[in-house]
Structure formats: C-alpha cells, structure tokens
Amino acid sequence: MNRFSFLLVSVVVCLPLLANADDLLMDKHLNGLKIDAGMEGNSDSGGQSASGALQALKLTNNDSVAVICMLKPGPAESSDAQSPPAVMAPGESATLRVEGKYTGAPLKASLECHKK
C-alpha cells in the first residue's frame, strides 16, 4: 500500500468520529410515557449561537395523556440558556434546545417527562 492510499484510508476511517462530535448525550427519564425524542436538523441560529454549540431536540407525545417535559443541561453546558418546559397534549410535538460551549465534545443533558 502506498503512502497516498494509507492516508486516504486513515481519513475515511476517522469520518464517523468527526460526524458525531456535535451530538447530544442525553439521559432520558420518561417515567413510562410514550415520548419520541430525536435531534432536529439546523436550528434557527444555524446550529450555533454566539457563545457556543446549540442542539435542538424534537419531542412527540405518543401517549394518551398530556405531558410536561424539561431538558436540563449538563454541568458543562450553559444553564442560563435553558429551554422552558414543554407542555404537550396527546399527539403534539415540541422543540427543546440545549446550549453549550463548543469544544468538539458532545453536549450533555437530561430529559425529564411527567404526566401533567
């Protein structure tokens, strides 16, 4: 294998690691509720705010009762930019955001949902 091929293979192997650098690591505490949670595409600010990284989480209430969900940022993320709680009737969706310092490491947060 020549030098160019080795370099090309090395870059291709590292691509998945780079793609996951901006992910949101989340602890889910759904309390038995049927809530779907998934990352949204670009946020209104283009994915980043002036102070760092911004992740948007789309929630859908698939349960038969109204729920309230809160996204609490991890210790390294900005707690003063915390999303307000989302109240969702059955079948409704909401978007919560967590802001953090852009370090290349995943943002951390805790999602807690309860019956309203």
Overall pLDDT metric: 74
Considering DSSP H and I runs of 4 or more, what fraction of the residues is helical?
A: 10-25%
Q: Provide the succession of SSEs.
A: HEEEEEEEE
The main pleated sheet reads as: 4 strands, mixed
Beta-strand residue percentage: 35-45%
CATH architecture: Sandwich
Strands of the biggest beta sheet: in what spatial order?
1-8-5-6
Please state the structural category. mainly beta
Provide a count of the helices.
Answer: 1
Counted beta strands: 8
Estimate nothing, just give the exact number of structural domains: 1
Characterization of this structure:
- By secondary structure, the protein is mainly β.
- It has a single domain (21-115), classed as Immunoglobulin-like (Sandwich).
- 15% of the residues lie in helices and 43% in strands.
- The strands form two sheets. It has a four-stranded mixed β-sheet, with no helix packed on it. Strands 2, 3, 4 and 7 form a four-stranded antiparallel β-sheet that branches.
- Strand 3 (48-49) and strand 4 form a beta hairpin.
- The longest helix is centred in the first third of the chain and has 17 residues, at 3-19.
